[in-house]
Amino acid sequence: MDDLVREWSAQLLDSGNVAALVAGVLSLLLVLSRNTWLLLRNVVTIAHEGGHAVVALLSGRKLNGIRLHSDTSGLTVSTGKPTGPGMVFTLLAGYPAVSLLGLGGAWLVTVDLAHVMLWACIALLAAMLLAIRNAYGVLSIVLTGGVIFGVSWFATPAWQALCCALFSWFLLFGGLRPIAELRRKRSGGRAPNSDADQLARLTGLPAGIWLALWFLIGLAAILTGGTWLLLMPQV
């Protein structure tokens, strides 16, 4: 059995297109499955809250802290002007951040820079750890960073590329599901203070417009990043 697994793995890694397709299908199943999504959604929340935090800092706001919760929700608190472009862009950034990180990862994989993606993720998680303000958040960051470090340190370059392709696909698909979940919550009146609703109050544009914008960004990221990954050369 071990010989068969090694032979299958070698054949898979020898074909970049097939490896990318397998990684994409597996990622989609992980996102669609309720059991795996309940656990792996924590990774999506990390990316989401990281997006809020980065844009808050870039827009001149003061980052007070980030909290990650066991129900996979999160909260990024920043202080500054309560209205204006800085606040709008900070609220806008969370949902697209997940898809755009997946898109960036897809590009790095296709240009044979998977190792750069791994170490960039570790660096970003280390920086984010400094802003975490609760124990579950620390645990989430440390565990996620530990898995990525393990891949970067112990996996061969071929397996690093395959793992990064899997991670990129997961972020691309995982960027869309929370938007659909938010839409369902809002239709049931269970998310009155969502990012979309806060943006609606700040800009006067309906929350549905922001949901549609996030969905289109995520869809464009999947089409672009997916094309890059499916054209991935031999790993």
From TrEMBL:
<protein>
    <submittedName>
        <fullName>M50 family peptidase</fullName>
    </submittedName>
</protein>
<feature type="transmembrane region" description="Helical">
    <location>
        <begin position="12"/>
        <end position="32"/>
    </location>
</feature>
<feature type="transmembrane region" description="Helical">
    <location>
        <begin position="159"/>
        <end position="180"/>
    </location>
</feature>
<feature type="transmembrane region" description="Helical">
    <location>
        <begin position="88"/>
        <end position="107"/>
    </location>
</feature>
<dbReference type="Pfam" id="PF13398">
    <property type="entry name" value="Peptidase_M50B"/>
</dbReference>
<feature type="transmembrane region" description="Helical">
    <location>
        <begin position="113"/>
        <end position="131"/>
    </location>
</feature>
<dbReference type="InterPro" id="IPR049500">
    <property type="entry name" value="Peptidase_M50B-like"/>
</dbReference>
<keyword id="KW-0472">Membrane</keyword>
<feature type="transmembrane region" description="Helical">
    <location>
        <begin position="209"/>
        <end position="231"/>
    </location>
</feature>
<feature type="transmembrane region" description="Helical">
    <location>
        <begin position="136"/>
        <end position="153"/>
    </location>
</feature>
<keyword id="KW-0812">Transmembrane</keyword>
<keyword id="KW-1133">Transmembrane helix</keyword>
